[in-house]
Design a protein that fits this description.
six-stranded mixed beta sheet, four-stranded antiparallel beta sheet, alpha/beta, ATP binding, AAA+_ATPase, nucleotide-binding, 31% helix, transport, ABC_transporter-like_ATP-bd
Length: 246
């Protein structure tokens, strides 16, 4: 695969906490325009991989490039939806203000959001079905509504690559369908999406690319090629029987 067609390239990435490896010697190439799931058991390093790519966690070895350049030079091309549990939902702010924060990266520190940015924030809220709640305090929203707001914040950035850490965690079925439909729309628009995901049954339905991870990379590639019992067994240690061809 040529460098020009790679959205993300990870080389020899190793991360350790208290000298215990959490990720070990990860090589990963993610082509542009795929909707990719990262799957693996608890403690496999899924969230750590995303945070290392984004520079939130510093690896002890290895390098990451976004479209062939260091992440620090490509920040504006990347949007991130963190795990819901890592967000302070008691912070006194409205849904509209949270989404508006997504425009700050393109404005810089000096400029304030104007009418253009406010319009984009409202459009993003409408896209995720949260426009009627624009003035609601985020602490007063349900878990699914909060997740939609954070998705809207990512959408307003109009990024090329979206990283999402368990976006379906704690949401109802209606919200999950709404979110995956938006992700598929983004993929159709040529965006690249990397999603930490835990429900193996929905992987073939939701994604076109998958990475199996358990401290080491087990396999990565198109669903039809690598989502099989052999890789599931290597990743989870038990023989998962997942109906791939439903």
């Amino acid at each position: 695969m040529t460098e020009e067609k790679l959205a993300i390239s990870v080389d020899d990435l190793t991360v350790a906490y208290d000298y215990k490896p959490v990720l070990w010697d990860i090589d990963l190439e993610v082509p542009e325009g795929v909707l990719m799931a990262i799957v693996g058991p608890n403690g496999a390093g899924k969230s750590t991989l995303i945070k290392s790519i984004l520079g939130i966690i510093k690896p002890i070895a290895g390098s990451v490039s976004i479209f062939g350049k260091p992440y620090k030079n490509q920040r504006k091309l990347v949007a991130y939806v963190p795990q819901k549990g890592s967000v302070d939902w008691d912070f006194p702010t409205t849904a509209a203000d949270v989404v508006l924060m997504g425009t700050y990266g393109s404005l810089g520190w000096i400029r304030r959001p104007g009418q253009k940015e406010k319009k984009a924030a409202l459009e993003a809220l409408e896209k995720v079905g949260m426009l009627p709640f624009k003035n609601r305090q985020i602490s007063q929203l349900s878990g699914g509504q909060q997740q939609r707001v954070f998705l809207a914040r990512a959408l307003v950035q109009d990024a090329s690559i979206y990283f999402m850490d368990e976006p379906f965690q704690g949401v109802d079925a209606t919200t999950e369908i709404a979110i995956i439909n938006i992700l598929k729309e983004l993929r159709k628009a040529g965006k690249t999406l990397v999603v930490v995901h835990h429900d193996l049954q929905t992987v073939p339905e939701y994604f076109d690319w998958v990475t199996f991870l358990n401290v080491k990379k087990i396999a990565t590639g198109p669903i039809k090629e690598v989502f099989n019992d052999d890789n599931l067994t290597k990743t989870y240690g038990i023989n998962y029987k997942v109906a791939v061809n439903k």
